[in-house]
Amino acid sequence: MYMAKQKIVYIAEAFGGGVLTYLSELASGLVSNYDISILYGRRAQTPNNLSDYFPSQVHLYEIKNFTRELNPYKDFCAYLELKSHLKKINPDIVHLNSSKAGALGRLIKYQKNQKIFYTPHGYSFLMDNQSTVKSRLYLGIEKILGQLPAYTIAVGKEEYKQSLRVTRKSTYINNGVDTHLIDGITPNDSIDSDYIVTVGRIDTQKNPKFFNQLALSCPQRKFLWIGDGPLKSELVAPNIKISGWMSHNQVLAILKQTQIFLLLSRWEGLPISLLEAMYCRNLCIVSNVVGNRDVIKNGETGIIVDDLENLLRAINKGIIEFKNIIDKAENEILYEYNLKQMIIKYQHEYEN
């Protein structure tokens, strides 16, 4: 007897960068077992060829009123759009991703038999570019929303620890990367392997001011920022090249060519670009924040730095000195942060 597939709806306002990669790979891994729909918001980094990132069986619906910023009118309209789509689809499982979708999605009243999950991808109250009052406000909102019937799945152990501040209904599943996909990518040999590279939106989170300070301190080195964003004007050092947004495969082709990857973020969830850079055998040098600390064991699988002096010291050592670290990092991804394990664990959570 034919059994209809259970329906999953993923909701994401921040549909670009790591969240897009995460949902693309998760949906692709689960689509044979579930009927999957995605309700998403469009950002500057959302690719125009979005359907190419998903199997043809995945249904994509744009939420026109999703905005990054707080906007009571737009947020209310987005809430109504979400309710309308969810009523039509009538899913068995709803999985909310990032703060805006997590807030609006948890305010919706669901049927008793529907399972609701929430993944923060970096809590808003951890953002260090805002006042203490605002951080406490976001923390308070998460505590209130944490009382509602949604189960939190953090993307790593550090985010899980933060989730326990706002809810006891929580677990974590490490982000994973598609190692088979990366194995099939040809390195982009038109890129000089000496470039020191980073990936992401050029905004406060990714700390372009610090990246620029580093470049000015190393005029003999070349730096590449893959991405774009509102703080592009802060990258004024003449030895920085800004690529603009690229497809996922184009980014991987560059990471397979370069040797040093930086992630100097002021806060993180669990960055997929870092996992990919580790598997692509880059020496990964990262800031000392939640998310980065999940992945990098300092001196074993990468380097954690707190200031410019330590960053310069790491960069100026010969790459050959870090061979053991690079080997361990690659193996860490292969056995601890691979996509196959991630998909199995999500399916277990959805079904149990």
Automatic annotation (TrEMBL):
One Pfam family of this chain: Glycos_transf_1
Key words, A-Z: Transferase
Name this polypeptide is given: Glycosyltransferase family 1 protein
Domain (Glycosyltransferase subfamily 4-like N-terminal) ranges: 17-180
All copies of domain Glycosyl transferase family, residue ranges: 193-317
Superkingdom field: Bacteria
InterPro entries found in the cross-reference section: Glyco_trans_1 (IPR001296), Glyco_trans_4-like_N (IPR028098), Glycosyltransferase_grp1 (IPR050194)
Molecular functions per Gene Ontology: glycosyltransferase activity
